[in-house]
Amino acid sequence: MPATYDRSGIKFLYPDNWVLSDQGDTELPRAISLEEPDGAMWSAHLYPAEYDPDLLVKDTVVALEETYPDLEITPTAKDFDHHDGTAVDAIFFCLDFLVRVKLQTIQTEGFQVLLWYQAEDREFEKHEPVFHAVSTSMLQSLV
Predict the structure, then answer these.
(1) Strands, DSSP E only, in 49-137?
(2) Helix, strand, or coil here: 9?
(3) Mind listing the pLDDT tens digit for each residue in 15-50?
(4) Which one of 32, 53, 99, 132 has the lowest number of neighbouring Cβ atoms within 10 Å?
(5) Strand segments (E) across 28-71
């Protein structure tokens, strides 16, 4: 049975065995994240609608590069379920794991949303449909 997040006009379904973290703020920017028991992570970072999506991704990549100097970035398709945005895939080593991250911005009426999907590279494809389903569920509440 999926769990439901419903707070401050943001609503989405997510797997009930994933751990939810929410800053509790309604002020922007704010972040909501989910962590799967094996370490995969989904998060949505909400900014004011007028925030520049290219700058948002650029700043996030710079922060990742500061922590992971071996970071490799690849631009990807910008369309997410008919929402335009900026998107990149990133890959880096953390301890002995190769970690894959997908960053995707989505413009909604009230927010600039940065979606962040992260999992160990060998597990990413297994988790990506869940990441996408949670994101789609959330976007339905924001349009």
Answers:
(1) 72-75, 87-94, 97-107, 111-120
(2) coil
(3) 999 999 997 777 889 999 999 999 999 999 999 999
(4) 132
(5) 30-35, 41-48
